[in-house]
Structure to design on (285 residues):
């Protein structure tokens, strides 16, 4: 079950990152974050009321609040990085945040077996190679790398926090709702400050109504990914769940290849293959 839900997390995060990266090429990143997360808040609010999730309220929700504060910073940095650099380069670098939940798992006493340890090394190496990193170039590329590393730490922290925010399915719905409300509050405040400083909140042609379905998909896919990751982490080793979930850059790279016609270099294809080998080792271990 851990492998299944963790792989679903990777798929959902990969597609959400691809969609978010495309949207920020025309719409300010903060607006993408706030609008997509607002849609998620509405949907999650309905789900919480329908499932009676309010009864699961407790001190553990502070983990969700913390995840909600860290999340917008990470998403904003990541979307800006995606807008600056090729998705196939930025996305794999973002996966280094897996070190945070893996480190938490090791501190809590988890010890993966030999086969799983090899799988972790192979999968992480494959994810890094899947982007065919290109560190040479202009200062814009260095800025994209710096933003990506900031986002990576934030994503890793969110993974660790959300895994501690609930112990039941209805509690998970409430935790995700609280996280998203905090996301919108923090992102909305940042957007307000940005606008006061003269930055545009919308594209030149106004609110992107035609992009509303894509914004909804990005927000809901990100929520679903957090949910499936939490389930994966609760039913198996966090070290395994985190590494499998971090395969999302492979999904982003493949989506970029299929939709944007970004050509995969030999090193990227080799990295994708290694990531799949690592996945098999982790799942079989």
């Amino acid at each position: 079950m851990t492998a299944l839900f963790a792989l679903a997390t990777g798929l959902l995060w990969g597609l959400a990152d691809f969609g978010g990266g495309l949207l920020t090429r025309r719409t300010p990143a903060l607006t993408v974050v706030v609008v997509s997360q607002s849609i998620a808040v509405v949907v999650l609010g309905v789900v919480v009321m329908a499932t009676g999730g309010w009864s699961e309220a407790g001190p553990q929700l502070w983990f969700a609040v913390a995840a909600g504060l860290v999340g917008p910073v990470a998403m904003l940095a990541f979307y800006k990085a995606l807008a600056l650099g090729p998705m196939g380069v930025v996305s794999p670098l973002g996966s280094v945040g897996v070190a945070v939940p893996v480190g938490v798992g090791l501190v809590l006493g988890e010890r993966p077996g030999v086969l799983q340890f090899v799988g972790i090394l192979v999968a992480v190496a494959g994810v890094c190679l899947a982007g065919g990193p290109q560190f040479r170039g202009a200062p814009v590329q260095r800025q994209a790398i710096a933003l990506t590393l900031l986002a990576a730490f934030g994503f890793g922290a969110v993974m660790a926090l959300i895994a501690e925010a609930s112990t039941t399915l209805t509690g998970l719905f409430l935790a995700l709702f609280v996280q998203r409300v905090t996301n919108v509050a923090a992102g909305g405040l940042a957007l307000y400050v940005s606008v006061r400083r003269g930055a545009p909140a919308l594209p030149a042609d106004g609110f992107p109504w035609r992009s509303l379905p894509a914004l909804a998909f990005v927000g809901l896919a990100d929520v679903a990914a957090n949910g499936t990751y939490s389930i994966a982490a609760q039913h198996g080793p966090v070290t395994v769940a985190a590494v499998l979930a971090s395969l999302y850059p492979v999904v982003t790279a493949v989506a970029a290849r299929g939709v944007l016609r970004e050509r995969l270099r030999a090193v990227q294809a080799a990295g994708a293959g290694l990531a799949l080998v690592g996945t098999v080792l982790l799942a079989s271990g």
Observations:
- The CA atoms of residues 37 and 63 lie 18 Å apart.
- Residues 2-284 form one domain.
- The longest helix spans residues 169-196.
- The chain has a mean pLDDT of 79.
